[in-house]
What we know:
Layout: H1 3-12, H2 37-43, H3 50-54, H4 59-70, H5 76-88
Helix pairs in contact: 2-4
Cofactor: Ca(2+); heme b
Binding site for Ca(2+): 25, 35
Domain Plant heme peroxidase family profile: 1-108
Amino acid sequence: xDPNYIVKLKQxxxxxxxxxxxxxxxxxxKFKTFDEAYFTLVAKRRGLxxxxxxxxxxxxxxxxxxxxxxxxxxxxxxxxxxxxxKMGNALVLTGNxxxxxxxxxxxx
Length: 108
C-alpha cells in the first residue's frame, strides 16, 4: 500500500475507532459509482481492501489493472457487462445444497 495513503488513513481512523467510515474510492466526485477510477487507485496502491492489493499480485490481473488505469477504462464497461452475465449463469444452490447465512461471517 502507498505509504502516503497509509498516513492519511491513520489520520482519519484512530486506534479503537469503530465508527469512522472510509471511502473505497477516495477523491472521486462520483463516490456512489463503481467505475474505471477504481483501477487508477489500485494501480497507485491506494486500494483499501486486501482484495484490491491482491489484484497486483497476479501478473494477468496486474496487467489488466494498469491497462484500465492508463486507458481510462477503455474496455471496463464491456468487461463488466460480460462478467455480470457469467455471474448470472452461475448455478444457485437451493434446498439442501446450500444455505442462507444469518451472519455472513459465520456458518449457520
